[in-house]
Amino acid sequence: MSKKLLLVEDNEMNRDMLSRRLERSGFVVAVAVDGAEAIERALADPPDLVLMDLSLPVVDGWEATRRLKADARTRAIPIIALTAHAMEGDREQAREAGCDDFDTKPVELTRLLEKIARLVK
Amino acid sequence: MPSIEVATYIADRERADAVSSELAAAGHTVCAWQPASELSPSVRVLVVDGLESALDALGVPCDLLVLVDTDEVSMFPEFPREITDFVFKPLRAHEVAARVAHIATFDPLAVRKRQRVLAHAVEAASDVIEITDPGAVYQYVNRAFERVLGFAADEVAGKTPAQLVRSDVHPPEFFQALDATLASGELWRGTLVSRARDGRLVHLDTTLTPVIDRKGQISHHVGIKRDITDELARREALVEANRALEHARDAAVSASRSKSEFLANMSHELRTPLNAIIGYAEMLMEDLTSGSQAHQDLRRIRTAGAHLLALINDVLDISKIEADRVELSYHRFPIQDLIAEVVATVEPLARSNANRFEVVAGPELGTIAADRTRLRQILLNLLGNGFKFTKSGRVALEVERIEHAGGNASFELRVVDTGIGISEAHQQKLFRPFVQADSSTTREFGGTGLGLVISRRLAEMMGGTITLVSELGKGSVFTLRLPADGDTNTEVLRIARRDNQQLVLLIDDHEETLDLFRRVLAKRGFAVISAESGARGFDLAMSARPDAIVLDVKMPGMSGWEVLSRLKLDAATAAIPVIMMTVMHQQELGQTLGAADYLIKPIEPERLVETLRRHTHGPTAKVLVVEDDEATRELIRRTLEHRGNVVDEAGNGQLALDRLEVERPDVIVLDLMMPVLDGFGFLHALRSDPRFADLPVIVATARTLDEAERRSLAHTAQQVIEKSAHTRLELIGLIGDQIQQLLARRDLGA
């Protein structure tokens, strides 16, 4: 059975592009446009992995990650942070929030697929 | 003993004879009552009975020894300068002889000369020297008086300072205090402002000394005054200039920070559409057969996108370096691992220009302590250049570990290529930002030319260098040298100074202890540097001047006690609080040697944090704590006061608004749930008042907030701390940290 990913991304074009590429790579992709929606979706239909943009409206990616990792129902779901920031501090902050891995945008698909494969057995 | 000629003028015959025979017995020649006109020029000393008679003899060029009554002296408070010496009555002949013998040993000419020199020195001194009588009437002023204040000696005579140079700058109490000091026999030091003859105000650094006579009365005041008017003006100008410089620096720091923030945001904005461009291009390529025209075109789009991305990254990197916003993170790792990783990354690139790629690594390379990401970036840049500028040639990465005397080691990583090489003229420009070696190079090879600049700066930040040897047409050798044990302390110090953090020095020979405490303290906002031996710790304390030192007692080599006593003996480090870590109660020894505090092992990290907070003082502030629970309020107040803040309290929002009318704090700590007026109501009232629109507020709340509340607070409060996520002590610690961060930002003018 194909693995289910939850892609959290507020930019419409990137959301569309990345979800389609991931679908082509064989994943089932659900999307959320902000952190609050991500939490709702993760609770309603737990994915195998979350791809989390960090700069998000309403609830940002760091906070959404913290909450997912604080909730027993979603704690086990691996989260890969995606960000266009190349600031050093972001990586640390993402780890502190509980992200399992981290990748910078623009996404290099093969690299991202490797990271996903490592976290989704 | 030299024998001289003495003339005596003593009324009492018997005593005169006794004196004469005593003097004759001492070998002197004596004559009595010789009229002045008949005196032999060889007479050296006149012995005169009574001050009255002495005044008559003043014109005679001889030393005067005067016989006086005790009361007589008080009647003549001023001893004529020409009187050499005197003897108190009742007269004793041997005493007179002793004084004469004393005078005889003097060379009178030398004495006069010395007096002249002294008088001349006083007269010509650059400082104003003045003598006044107890009624403050001028008795003497030197030439500097006229030069500084404009009054000639004859204008001064008979006047008092109040009549002559009164400036009306000092209040009456000032002179009352001055007079009281002098009347008690003490000297007075201070700055007097006098008015010169032309109306100018003159600032005089002044010492006034009362001269006490033999009866304990003040006979004169001697004033020595230095004109510091110009010096004060210069000092003021300097202070003004410093202030202007500080403003300029603050503005520059803040401008540079906004610039770097702007660039970071811009980079995000630029990458987001780029992400879409590259992504969609790749997706379309997957749909098309490779080799088709459309596939080739899409490849070009993707390549151009990737190039644009590299440019953005370079510009962002250099901006961050220039704005001092790059933070290194040191780790120790086998250098072989990194080389393998870099080689795997560049291998596809190595093949593209038909180049041969070789790695020449010595055996036993061991580990390096460095920022792994940044080191990888440097190597990728150097190798990338090598491959780019070499065609059908050889590119090699040579790695060597070099052991130095004294146990230090370093790494030399050389990228050697047989490419086009760089002319000497271009080598000069290569490491300068925004100056490309050759604009035609850019056209042909692309790139910002910033890669090498970034690499060199990063290498320097890690305590290393990058050097270049190259010959046009033959190839280039770029050599990166890095210390094997990169010093994290340098990096921590740089950040601590930049961000105004409290700096703590840990000295302990146990690496695990250092590691644990370093992490705990860093999390709580301290910058931590460390040393693994007493000797190194002492050196580091001298060079870094930390705000506090945590010192282990039991260490090999120099013990903690020895380090402590050396720290306390050196003026440069004596004032730094030292916290000792011991296994036993050795409080007394610690106190004797000057330890500020001590902790007994095993040490709770939280205890260490609290102890350090007690002994370090960040910037402090006036804080208004608005909280209805008295126990919590008290705890917050005590903690904040411990850290040197001044704390005011209010039990609810309304009381807080009332307090604000009385005194404006630097920051408010606010609870949300309170009777009468709650935190939200308070914030609304506060932000509606233009006086308090920008007053920082830290919200500390026991509840979990909902989205609407969070959004509302995002607009009205600087910081929100949710109590549920923390223990009460942690929470209060966090409040303190937030206050210090707010203050640090305020101090930087951001």
What can you tell me about this protein's structure?
The complex is a heterodimer of chains A (121) and B (750). Chain A is of the alpha/beta class. Chain A contains five helices and five strands; from the N terminus they run E-H-E-H-E-H-E-H-E-H. Chain A has one domain: Rossmann fold. In chain A, helix 2 packs parallel to helix 3. The two termini of chain A are 12 Å apart. In chain B, the strands form six sheets. In chain B, strands 2-1-3-4-5 form a five-stranded parallel β-sheet. A five-stranded antiparallel β-sheet of chain B has the order 7-6-10-9-8, sandwiched between helices. A five-stranded mixed β-sheet of chain B has the order 12-14-15-17-16, with helices on one face. The longest helix of chain B has 59 residues. Chain B is elongated and about 145 Å long. The model of chain B has no long low-confidence stretch (mean pLDDT 83). Chain B is of the alpha/beta class and 750 residues long. Chain B folds into six domains: 115 residues, 3-Layer(aba) Sandwich (Rossmann fold), CATH 3.40.50; 102 residues, PAS domain (Beta-Lactamase, 2-Layer Sandwich); 75 residues; 153 residues, Heat Shock Protein 90 (2-Layer Sandwich), CATH 3.30.565; 113 residues, Response regulator (Rossmann fold), CATH 3.40.50; 126 residues, Rossmann fold, CATH 3.40.50.2300. Chain B is built from 27 helices and 27 strands. At the A-B interface, helix 1 and helix 4 of A face helix 10 and helix 11 of B.
